[in-house]
# Entry
Amino acid sequence: MDDYENLLKRARASLPEKTASGERFEPPNAETLMQGSKTVVKNFEAICLKIRRDPQMLAKYFSKELAIPGTMEGNRLVLHGKFYDRVINEKLATFINKYVICKECSRPDTKIVEGLHGIKTLVCDACGARSPVK
Ligand SMILES: [Zn+2]
# Structure
């Protein structure tokens, strides 16, 4: 038992340290819970913080894509339908590709700027690229 724990310790110590800059972006994973006929995204607020998007925007996206109403309750999102977490995570990944990741440099350091007539543009802080979003 001791040997095994030492082995684990050594294995962990030999892992490369992550650097603050140049770290690979790890898309967040939605943690969901089925409650009766509803699906709760438990870490909804944490996801929005990580991808730096307005929770309202992501909530709206989920309800549109899944064709069901969604309501925010505290830091969770309650979807009024039953969905497997695989489905939620597929939608989340699509959202991130479309509205978070820069099309030029593939970095997530972007923001959405709303211009005249509600036209939205994805602006990258890393490389300065601008691309329209629908
Ligand atoms: Zn970029």
In short: The longest helix spans residues 85-99. The longest strand covers residues 110-114. Confidence is low (pLDDT under 50) at residues 15-20.
